[in-house]
Please model this.
Amino acid sequence: MSTLIDPLDDGPMPQPLRADVAAARTASANLLPDGVGTRWRAIYTDSESPTGIAPVCTAESDGERHVIADYPGGPAPDPDGVYDCCPDPQIEIGSVPLAAYLVALLNADAAVAEEGDTPAAALPTTEWLLTPDTLAAIDDLIDRDGVFAKGYYERISDSTVITGLRIGSGPGRVVARFGDTIVRHADGTYSVRHAVVETGGAA
Ligand SMILES: [Zn+2]
Model:
């Protein structure tokens, strides 16, 4: 039995990750020393400003290690400083905003990786039951996947009414009507499993 997901209740789905980003992330993580996490921070290298980046120091937890001991007037906390406990690599970027940007990118990617650390090609198959109530949410999810989707209209008894969702464009498009199940495959393509129509027990 397949799992049906109600996209209205499920919150935002993790974006499928580009396979090249996921591969680069894995290669990078394998180069970092053991015990180093996936989060980065801006650091003061030898300049007056936080123009460098480094992995977050996992040795520091209670603010005891990153301290300027001889600060005038008494020891001062130095969360952006670099000490013997801090892991490599400590990379000089040469720019405060660029260092901040790189830290933000790296940490955003780490957060995405925690949500679903798989390239798009390895995403599990997902199924959604299409109903008038789920149409808008499913439409959004498919659009965010980078696949064009829009309401599908048919002429019934002299009026044009929405009867489902059209997914994709051109010859490869598929149409799901209300009651059908939309299947997103692991390779990012879509198909439709049509609702079983009762035929009165035909063999
Ligand atoms: Zn440290």
Summary: Helices lie at 19-31, 96-115, 135-144.
